[in-house]
Amino acid sequence: MKKVIALLLAVLMVLPFAACGKPEQEDKVKVGFIYLHDENSTYDKNFIDAAKAACEKLGVDFIEKKNIPEGNECLEAAEDLIDHGCNIIFADSFGHEDYLIQAAQKYDKVQFLHATGTKAHTQGLENYHNAFASIYEGRYLAGVVAGMKLNEMIEQGKIKPEEAVMGYVGAFTYAEVMSGYTSFYLGAKSVCPSVTMKVQFTGSWYDQTLEAEAAEALIKTYHCVLLSQHADSMGAPATCEANGIPDVSYNGSTLAQCPNTYLISSRINWEPYFEYAIKCVIEGKKIDTDWTGTMATESVLLTELNTKAAAAGTQEKLDQVKAALAAGTLHVFDTNNFTVNGEKLTSYMADVNTDPKYEKDTEAIKDGYFAESLYRSAPYFDVEIDGIELVNRNYGD
Amino acid sequence: MKEPLFHIVKRDAVPWWQAWLVRIGAVVAAILACALVTVLLTGQNPVDVLLTMADGAAGTPRRLWALAQNTAILLCIALAVTPAFKMRFWNTGAEGQVLAGALSTAACMIFLTRFFTVENADGTVSAAGNVWLLYVIMIAAAILSGALWGVIPAFFKAKWNTNETLFTLMMNYVIIQIINYFAYQWSVPKGSGAIGIINLDSKIGWFAELFGQTYLINILIVVGLTVALAVYLRFSKHGYEIAVVGESENTARYIGINVKKVIIRTMILSGAICGIAGLLLVAGTDHTVSRETAGGRGFTAIMVSWMAKFDPLVMVLTSFLIVFLQKGAGEISTQLGLNKSFSDILTGIIILFIIGCEFFINYRILFNFGKKTSGKEVKTL
User: Fold this and answer.
1) Which DSSP category does B213 fall into?
2) Number of domains in chain B
3) Cβ contact (<8 Å) for B193 and A397?
4) Which residue range is the domain that position B357 belongs to?
5) Does B26 share its domain with B83?
6) What is the rounded CA–CA span in Å between residue A224 and residue A245?
7) pTM of this prediction?
8) Could you read off the pLDDT of B312-353 as tens digits, one per residue?
9) Looking at chain A, which residue has its C-alpha nearest residue B198?
C-alpha cells in the first residue's frame, strides 16, 4: 500500500511538467527534418547543410531530429514534428520510407518528402513524395576526368593502353551503386576506349578500414591505376594518396587531404529540392510524386577540379560533355556505347516497382538508351556490362 | 593508528517515508546537478533545458501516449527479467528473448497472412473471417520462441551449473545473427537488408486501434501482466519458491523444493514474457523486425527491475522515469540544437543520483571530526 502511495506521489510530481506543453499554430509553413545520424556522417551532413540553406533562404521555420533509427522511432519522430506544427516532413534514409508512408496515410494534411525511396509512384498517396538526383550524370563527367588522366598516363608511357584498369570501391551490390559505377566507367570509356574496371564491395556505407583494405587490394592485387568510390569514408582517397594513385572521390572534395592524387568529385546538392518542395507548399501547388534533380536544377554538382593532378585540357573537355548532356544529345546509358555479354542491349526489364518478389516490371530501354530515373527518381540500372568485373558481391547481411 | 576521516555504517531498516524522502531528495539534487552542468557546458538557461525535457516527454496528448507506450514495453521486459532475478538467476538475455519473440511474430505475419485473406474486387486484399486464428498463432509462436530462448541457458544451468550470465548474454548474439540472416532473406527490395513494414496496406496481423488509440492494446496487456506478475510473486506458491531459491539454494533443497525445476520453470516464464514483449513490438508498434527491434531495452530493463527492488508495482514508476528521461533528453537535442550526446549526459547524471541514493538509504556515513587520533601524526601522501 505504502509503495502505491509513494508511486502516486511521484507521478503527481511529474504532472506539473506535463501541463507545460501548448499546441502550436498550424497555418504557417514549418518544415521538420528527420536524419539517420548527425553532422558527423558526411551523408547526413550533406542534407543538414542543404536543409538549413534552403529554409533560411525562403525564411521558413524548421526543426531537425537527428539520430533517428530506421524503426518505429521514425514514425514517432514524424508525429512529434507534426505536434510541433510542421506541415512538411522530410526523412533522409532509405529505411525510413515505410514509416514515413505510414505517417502519410495517417496525416493527409501534411506533406511527406523522402530522399532515395522507391515506393511513392506505386503507393498512390497524394502527400507522399520521393526524390533523388541524376547523379549518374555527375559520375559520367567524373569518369571523363578519369579517362583523360588515363590517356595522359598512356601518352607518357607510364602504362600500356591495356593496362588502363580502374578500381572502384562500392558499398553494396544494389542498383544505386551499380548505376553509379557503370556511369563512371562509361564516362572514362568515352575518352579512353581501352579502359576496364574492377569493383570491390565492402558491405557498408561507412567503414574506413574496409574501404582502405578494398582500395589497397585493388591497387596491389588487381593493379588498378586509378580509383573511385561509392562509400562514405576517407578510406579509399587516403589509400590512394599514400600510394600515389589518382582518385575520383565522392560526396565532396578531398583536395585538402589528398593534394597530389585527388582529381574531382561529384555530389548531390539537395538544396534545390528543398526549395522546390517548400515553395510548392507555400504556393499551394502539388509536389511531384517522383522528383529527379539534374545538372540543370543544380542538384548534381562537380566539386573543384584539381588542375595539378588532372590531365591538361580536362576542363575544356568537361564543359563540352556537360553541354552535350544538358542539350540531350548525349545519354549516359546510350546502348551504342556498351555491350552485355558481347551483345548490344535492345530490351531490359528493370525492377522499378518495389515488391517482395523483385519482379522485373518495366521496360527501361527507350529510344536507344537505358532511361535511368525516368519511371521513378531512385536509380534502377542494375545491368552488368562488359568491361567491368565484380571482384566480389555484397547484398548486405 | 590512523583513524579515517569517516567511516560507513549499515543502517537499520529506515521507515518507508524516510527512504522516499531520500529518493525525492536525490531527484532534486540530480536536477540541480544537471542545471549546473548545463550552465557550465552550454551556457543555456537550465530551467529552459528542464522544461524542454518535460515538454518533449509529455507536452502533447500524442507524446503522452508515446510515453505510455514506451513505458509499457520497457516495463514488460522488466517484468520478464524479474522472476529470474528474484531467484538470483542473472538473465542478461532479455534482449535476445524479446528478439526471438519478435522474429517469430514477424515470420507468422510474412508467411501465414496469405491463408487468412480474401481478395477484393479491386485486387487489394483484406482480412478473412478466420483472421483471429492468425493472431492466436502469432501469440503462441512469440511466447514459445521467447520461452525457448530463455529455457536453453536455464537447462544448462540446472543440469551442469553453467554460468547463466554469460550464457544468456551469448544467446543475444546468436539471435541477432539469425535476425540478420532473415532480414536479408526476406528483405524488400532485395539486398536492402531491411524487411520493411509487413502488410503496410492491409494491416493484417497488426493490433487494432482501441478507441482510436494505436497503442492502447499494448498498454492494457502490460497493465494486466504487471498485476498478474505481482500476484504471482507475492501470493503464489511458485513465487514463494522463487524467493527461497533466491535467498539460499541449500535452504530451498532442505525444505524440499526441487531447485532445478524451479530454475527451468522460472526461466520459461521469464522468456515467455520477453516473447510477449517481442509480440507487442512487432504486432503493436514496429510491424517489422530488425536487430534494432529491442533497441537495448533488454539491458535497460535490468536497471528498471533492479531500481524497483524486483517489485512489479514499483517498476511502473522506474520504467516510467527512465522513458521520461530518454524522451525528454531527446527533445533537448531537437529544440535547443544541442548534440544528442548532451542529453545522454543529463540522463546519466539523473540515473547516477537515483541509483546512488540507495547507498544512503542502506548506509550512513559517520565523520570523525574533532575526535583525537591516537598516536602519531599520519602523513598523507
Assistant:
1) B
2) 2
3) yes
4) 1-44+339-381
5) no
6) 9
7) 0.77
8) 999 999 999 889 888 887 787 777 777 677 777 888 888 888
9) A98
